[in-house]
Design goal:
843 residues; 5-stranded mixed β-sheet; 5-stranded antiparallel β-sheet; 33 helices
Length: 843
């Protein structure tokens, strides 16, 4: 590998390195690090300065995979500049291969050295593409800010577990103490501390001499070194160190950093590690181990069944909230009680209820009504959604889930201020959620159809691709903390994909694979939103597998009806009123009760309507007990009529009214007889209606005109609502048009700032200064010759800048010119031009 062409000169700064790269490289840099684009840098020097700021470097380091991070960590502890060969030795060790970690009970990779050699060029290319490393292969340099973040220091140990070098540790040590260490280590004394420290560092870097020195070390001293070698490199000592520590201190193998604290110098640790910076280099991502193999047809059928279940659960939720949902908490979101009630209504656990509620909200099917007494309610979009085929309804849910930043798995937890996180409430957005979901599905798509990867293998791959923190001390072996947020998001994505029917039995389904298809896959717009083509292909794959709705049920003599599959919507809606759902599953069991039949009669149905409905939709004869139940309830239904006086009871049978008056249970209703067929009540109609029904009567409400009041509640809808937008962290990913314009602007600004001038200002960066007559004459001459000029310009806001222009016209106190810096024609007032200078001819 070589990053230097014959005759080329190594760049002296990051800005020079960027200046030597082409426009494609700059565009990809701005795409990968969009924070550098806001605002557009004026030139490449400004771009390089911005790329080296702490906040931007931290973001760039966190986007690296594990091996690229390890390479950056190795560069941070290597001398600057570092050659490619030295870096390779730091990564795989002085013996040319990764060591076997037998003392930890684990075998190292026998091919580790070769794997590192193959992966290192790609990692370096990634670091260069991110503008974190610059220079050719003979003089590699890590951006200073990255070195400060990754190099060891008193407040932040290195992720590699290495301590500071000998020269840094001995900086405050007395010359006499340094000379004593040099002498004890078997080196000749020197005339100054600098040469003594250099001799000590050379000793620690010489493998043969270090092996000879350690060969005479007591076993207890070697045990101390073993405990510190892989970090942390700091230890505590008493005022009178034990003999095993004194032996190490006398020879500089441990050096004091503060009273009571010692550190293992970097050179010593590297020798004990065999020259390796990392205990376990990870040049390759962990494999996706397959947990189970299934036939693809089984996976698709399982996923399709779950997809239909997802649609029906959301339908049940919307039906439950059709007349108005729970109240909105003052701080936003659902109360714990309302979430529990919703979970009971859906027959799911509370975490799953939170997921379905959040999914319906993300799809724009639920929202707050915005009224003074704010409540959640179904949106008008639900009515159009409900009319679609099941596969299309599922696609709406899947398309809402993939780009959503709201994370239902956080419900019930606590935020940074120790406030409870509630469903539909604030604080549930996690900007990494869409990226993690899409990546999880992409990993599932890497294995053959029907293969279910081990979830832990998927999580391990994601940890390798996005380690938890680039600048935090790593645990032994590079293991991520158990509570890593991205790990929780990945586990949640696997569970939610199964709930949604994107996966089946842990394997990605055929319609799930279509969601990831090019060219308009989930990342087509940079925010994870699905393209129309991907949705259409997924629907086409799923539609044949979704259970076909049935138009019939099986009536049984025990007053139940069995739906052997999903029902057509009109049939399901009527049965939901006429009967109670007793159980769900592959088949739904409905039970007919006097209360449910009365509910259907209250909704405007007659007994003959119900008999005809059941006869038309039952594959079995209507059982006699069910016919008797309907007739019995209908015969008694409406004999009593209740209207508003405050309230009254009307009945043609005065004997029935006498029975009611004689019943002690009616004392609280305040009844009195107004006429043989009318009773008045002090209670309101609703209370009177419920009271008489509780006594076993079957009264019906009536309108002021004397007609039976239909008790069918009207559906309640919010106003038009748009689904919640995913929350973005930092600037949006730029498109190609913006990148091309930005690169042209940066190139033009850099040309203006670096172009040679015939009459340059005395100080670098200063604006050219000429008198107004000289400025005018030079501009007019340039119009005639077509010559480009360098000008200084001060805007109306007082911002000074340098520009390269080609004047086209000078008149009326203005100059019209093609501005090479802005790549467009502009007009400038002459009085704001500080001066002009001719560009030197390039050789």
């Amino acid at each position: 590998m070589s990053g230097k062409s014959p005759g080329s000169v190594s760049p002296r700064s990051l800005a020079e390195a960027l200046r030597a790269r082409d426009d494609v490289f700059l565009a990809e840099l701005l795409r990968a690090r969009p924070d550098l684009l806001t605002p557009v840098p004026g030139d490449l020097t400004q771009l390089a300065t911005r790329a080296a700021t702490r906040a931007s470097v931290v973001r760039a380091l966190e986007r690296l995979d594990r091996f690229a991070q390890q390479v950056a960590e190795a560069l941070a502890v290597a001398p600057e500049p570092t050659g490619y060969g030295d870096l390779l030795r730091l990564m795989r060790g002085a013996d040319g291969a990764a060591e076997r970690e037998e003392r930890d009970g684990e075998d190292g990779d026998p091919d580790g050295g070769a794997a590192i050699g193959r992966a290192l060029p790609g990692a370096l290319a990634t670091l260069r593409a991110q503008a974190l490393v610059w220079g050719d292969d003979e003089r590699l340099r890590l951006v200073r800010t990255a070195r400060e973040l990754l190099a060891p220091g008193p407040q932040h140990p290195s992720p590699t577990g290495l301590g500071p070098p000998v020269a840094e540790t001995t900086a405050g040590m007395s010359p006499g103490r340094v000379q004593a260490i040099v002498a004890t280590a078997g080196l000749a004394s020197t005339h100054d501390s600098v040469s003594a420290v250099a001799a000590l560092a050379a000793l620690f870097g010489d493998r043969a001499r270090m092996d000879a020195l350690l060969a005479g070390a007591p076993a207890e001293s070697l045990e101390v070194l073993d405990r510190l070698v892989w970090g942390p490199p700091y230890g505590q000592v008493t005022a009178e160190p034990a003999a095993r520590l004194r032996w190490l201190l006398d020879r500089g193998l441990l050096l004091p950093t503060s009273p009571g604290t010692v550190v293992l110098p970097r050179e010593v640790a590297l020798h004990l590690r065999g020259g390796r910076v990392h205990r376990r280099p990870e040049p390759s991502p962990p494999p996706l181990g397959v947990r189970a193999e299934h036939r693809p047809q089984v996976v698709d059928a399982t996923a399709a069944g779950q997809a239909y279940t997802a649609v029906t659960v959301v339908e049940d939720l919307l039906r439950d909230w059709d007349e108005g949902g729970p109240a909105v908490l003052r701080a936003g979101g659902l109360s714990v009680r309302d979430l529990k009630r919703t979970a009971v209504a859906l027959d799911v656990s509370e975490p799953m209820a939170a997921f379905w509620v959040e999914l319906a909200y993300a799809a724009g099917l639920l929202a707050s009504d915005g009224e003074a007494d704010e409540r959640y309610a179904v949106t008008p979009a639900r009515d159009e959604w409900a009319q679609r085929p099941a596969a299309e309804r599922w696609a709406v849910l899947a398309a809402a889930w993939l780009p959503a930043t709201r994370t239902a798995g956080l419900v019930g937890g606590r935020d940074a201020k120790d406030r409870s996180l509630s469903a539909l409430g604030p604080g549930l957005d996690r900007t990494a959620a869409p990226e993690v979901r899409n990546r999880v599905l992409a990993l599932l798509a890497e294995v053959p159809p029907g293969s279910a990867p081990d979830p832990e293998a998927v999580v391990a791959r994601l940890r390798w691709e996005h380690p938890p923190r680039a600048v935090a001390p790593a645990r032994a072996g590079g293991a991520a903390p158990a509570d890593d947020p991205r790990t929780r998001l990945a586990r949640g994505a696997l569970d939610e994909a199964e709930l949604l029917g994107i996966t089946g039995r842990g394997a990605l389904s055929a319609h799930g694979r279509e969601l990831l298809g090019a060219p308009d896959g989930p990342a087509a717009d940079g925010a994870g939103r699905l393209g129309a083509g991907a949705v259409a292909r997924a629907v086409a794959r799923l539609a044949p597998l979704v259970p076909h709705p049935l138009d019939h049920v099986l009536l049984q003599a025990d007053l139940t009806a069995v739906a052997p599959g999903p029902l057509e919507r009109p049939l399901a809606d009527v049965l939901a009123v006429l009967a109670e759902v007793e159980s769900k599953g592959g088949a739904t069991v409905y039970r007919f009760t006097p209360a449910s039949v009365r509910r259907a009669l209250d909704a405007g149905r007659t007994a003959s309507d119900l008999h005809a409905f059941l006869a038309a939709h039952s594959r079995t004869p209507v059982p006699q007990p069910l016919s008797y139940l309907i007739d019995d309830v209908a015969r008694r239904h409406g004999r009593l009529r209740i209207g508003a006086a405050a309230a009254y009871v009307r009945c043609d049978d005065d004997g029935l009214l006498s029975e009611i008056l004689a019943d002690r249970r009616t004392e609280g209703l305040g009844l009195r007889r107004l006429a043989p067929t009318v009773l008045a009540s002090q209670s309101d109609p609703a209370t009177l209606l419920e009271g008489l029904r509780a006594m076993g009567f079957a009264p019906a409400a009536e309108t002021p005109e004397g007609d039976v009041m239909i008790a069918r509640a009207d559906s309640y809808r919010t106003g038009p609502r748009t689904p919640p937008e995913p929350v973005q962290e930092g600037p949006a990913r730029p498109d190609d048009t913006l990148l091309r314009a930005a690169v042209r602007a940066v190139r033009a600004g850099d040309h203006a700032a670096t172009a040679p001038h015939k009459s340059a200002p005395e100080q670098p960066g200063a604006l050219p200064r000429t008198s107004p007559p000289e400025t005018l004459a030079t501009l007019q001459a340039a119009v005639l010759t077509g010559q480009a000029l360098w000008i200084g310009y001060v805007s109306a806001e007082g911002a000074a800048s340098q520009r390269v222009i080609a004047p086209v016209r000078v008149e009326g106190g203005f100059v019209t010119a093609y501005d090479h810096t802005a790549d467009e024609v502009r007009t400038y007032p002459l009085h704001r031009i500080t001066g002009v200078a001719e560009l030197a001819e390039e050789e």
